[in-house]
Design goal:
Layout: H1 17-29, H2 33-44, H3 65-75, H4 82-86, E1 88-91, E2 94-97, H5 100-108, H6 113-135, H7 141-164, H8 170-173, H9 175-180, H10 182-185, H11 195-204, H12 215-221, H13 244-247, H14 258-263, H15 278-283, H16 292-298, H17 327-335
Antiparallel strand pairs: 1-2
Helix pairs in contact: 1-6, 6-7, 7-11
């Protein structure tokens, strides 16, 4: 069959309408497609009509009612939703819709992937600006997701608490969010997580995620480089020991050993790079006492080593006595006369009539 037909390629396969809607929302709002996609995957598993059991959160990005009404009120006119935005009014610090049928239609828009993606992209940009002002730096992708769950102010409080008081119980500061998101604020055993642990849980799914559509251009121009999410900071103390370097660029800048420092340091006056001989001294000890120059070489001291001279490497251990030839065998071998080359003429076939 394949002799006469061409298999269907990936590009020819129909695109997922939900993913396409998220991509369009990212392009129209300037938010990162990767970030919006991962957020929708975590919030609703890409189900447009997903409904939370513990709150009014609904739709692809699990907008609660007040947040959705606020976004439609602010962004609706920019996205061709002026009629819905005009129907929303503020009363007593809350957003309301006088007409119940209009309110229902506005809230039902949360189940529309295209509208939901637009509002999620706009909310991402809004949270990004607010967090940048509160933190004095550009937020990471995981921190933007914290703002999606807790609001920009709540995310700012969580980030600052994780830095200043990491062992503080997060549920005490965010009781409503903890009640609606027990899997985030409590572990499987039901124990309340600290603010440091909640930070890690929220940031884990957005590690190394592009947070804005123009992040590449900004990084090339040197404007607002966005660091990778530091997931290790959200883990319990000691659990990520040895792995922090995989997630963070803020660790120690010191070399891992003196040998590495010497090998990667350019010597003065054209000398030779020398590694620390500590390891060699342990496995190949020098016979007899060590001199001052040997001692300085074994400690990796650059001041005591003459760059113009090669330092003698440590000698290997002596040959084991059971493998060394005996004195009698050596003397017998020396006393014998050395034979000449072996004559092979008798074994050769004579040719040419001889």
């Amino acid at each position: 069959m394949f002799l006469f037909t061409t298999p269907q390629t990936r590009d020819a396969q129909p695109a997922n309408p939900v993913v396409s809607a998220i991509r369009q929302g990212a392009e129209r709002t300037g938010a990162g497609f990767d970030y919006l996609l991962k957020t929708a995957q975590r919030e609703s598993s890409l189900e447009p009509d997903a409904k939370a059991k513990t709150s009014s959160a609904t739709g692809l990005f699990q907008f609660i009612e007040q947040t959705w009404l606020s976004m439609v009120k602010q962004e609706g006119p920019k996205q061709g939703l002026s009629q819905y935005a005009d129907a929303i009014s503020e009363s007593g610090g809350r957003l309301t819709v006088a007409d119940p049928s209009a309110r229902e239609k506005i809230l039902q828009l949360r189940n529309d992937p295209q509208v939901a993606a637009l509002m999620a992209g706009a909310l991402t940009q809004k949270n990004r600006d607010q967090l940048a002002g509160a933190l004095g730096r550009q937020p990471q992708a995981g921190e933007l997701y914290m703002a999606h769950v807790l609001g920009a102010r709540g995310a700012s409080d969580l980030i600052k608490a994780a830095a200043s008081d990491p062992n503080r119980v997060a549920a005490r500061d965010f009781p409503e969010a903890a009640a609606a998101n027990r899997s985030i604020f409590y572990d499987k055993a039901g124990q309340a997580r600290s603010v440091q642990e909640v930070y890690g849980v929220l940031a884990a799914s957005h590690a190394s995620t592009q947070v804005a559509a123009n992040v590449t251009q900004n990084a090339q121009a040197g404007q607002g480089d966005i660091p990778q999410a530091e997931i290790a900071v959200g883990l319990r103390e000691g659990r990520a020991k040895g792995l922090v370097g995989l997630f963070s660029t803020n660790g120690s800048r010191d070399p891992v050993s003196k040998a590495v420092a010497n090998l990667w340091t350019t010597p003065s006056r054209g000398g030779t790079r020398l590694a620390s001989l500590d390891g060699g001294e342990r496995y190949f000890p020098r016979p007899g006492a060590t001199s001052a120059s040997d001692a300085s070489a074994s400690t990796g001291s650059a001041a005591a080593v003459d760059p113009g001279k090669m330092v003698n490497a440590p000698l290997p251990p002596s040959r084991p006595s059971d493998l060394s030839p005996t004195t009698a065998a050596v003397s017998q071998t020396v006393g014998k006369a050395r034979r000449g080359p072996l004559d092979l003429s008798s074994f050769m076939i004579q040719r040419g009539g001889a």
